[in-house]
Every structure is written in C-alpha cells, then in structure tokens.
Amino acid sequence: MSLFDFTFALSAVVLGLALTHLAANTHKLLLAGDRVLWATEPILLATIVFFVIVGVWLEQWSARSVETVMVAQIFVQTLKFLALYFAAASCLPEPPPEGVSTDLYAYYDRTRRLSFGALLVSLLLFRFDQFAFYDLPDGWTIWDSLQMALYPVLWLLLLFIRRRWLNKLILVGALLHYGWMLLSSQLST
Hints:
Elements: H1 3-32, E1 36-37, H2 40-59, H3 71-91, E2 102-103, H4 104-133, H5 142-160, H6 164-183
Parallel strand pairs: 1-2
Helix pairs in contact: 1-2, 1-3, 2-3, 2-4, 2-6, 3-4, 4-5
C-alpha cells in the first residue's frame, strides 16, 4: 500500500459520506413530492457543494506521487473535508415526516450561515494547506491571487446578504464559473 492509498482512504470516506448525505436527502425530498415547497437557492447550493466535493476528490489525484507527508497536514486535510461534509449536510433538509410540509427556501434562509460558513472554513483550510505545505506554482501571478479570493468573498457575502435575487445571482454565477473550471479540467497519469 502506498502513502497515497493510505491517506486517500480517509479522504474518500469523508467525501463519500458527504456525497451520500446529499444524495439521500435529495432522494427523500423527491419522494416527499408535494409536501416539499421547492426553491432555487438550496438546489443551486447543493449543486455547488456536489461540484466542490467531486472537484476536491479529483484534485487528490495530484498527490499520488507524494512520498512523505506531515501528520499535521493530514489533520488539516481531515478538517477541510469535515467542513465540506458540514456544508453538504446543511444545504438540504431531512425530508418532512408524513403529513408535514417543508419550505426549502425557509430552510435555506435559516441554515445559510452554517452552509456558507462551512464552505468558507473549508476553503480557508484549503488555502492554508496550499501555502503551508506546498510551494507556489511557477509563474504565480496577481490574477491567480485574485481568483483565489473570489470564492471566500462570495461565501462571506452570502453569510449576511438575504436578498433572494442577489443570492440567486451569486449562486448561479458561482455554479457556472466553478462548473466550467471543473468540467474543463483533465486528469492524466
């Protein structure tokens, strides 16, 4: 067993649990049918969290040739994945009990601080991990730094802004940007 296999197993478990939570809640909400008052914002957020989890899992492939790793780095890695789990667990509610309805926008509004706070903490831990344990890539530019600040600023704004149209606009923009970046990336051996 390689070091990558050993460390990736923990990542796969935490990220797999986050995806499972998203899938299970989505499935149960769909089964609840007309007892669910659907809203755009939690669906967009769940899709973003799904893309982030898949993107993070795919990014792990770049560490396959690492021969040594600090235990402190494994702790940071586990914390950033657990923060992603919290984001996944909070973006969609548990399905309502029989005879009770649920309003997804009300849930989104009530839990958005936990959802976006978890995304923000996870992202800040990713940035800390990147700068504390790795060298900056050759050719690092100010543009790269600005792009790194984009999502922390967006998640911070969404912690406090309650205007629905602005939430939708930011979520759609983030989904399109991150989705385009993720879907256009490639894996190689």
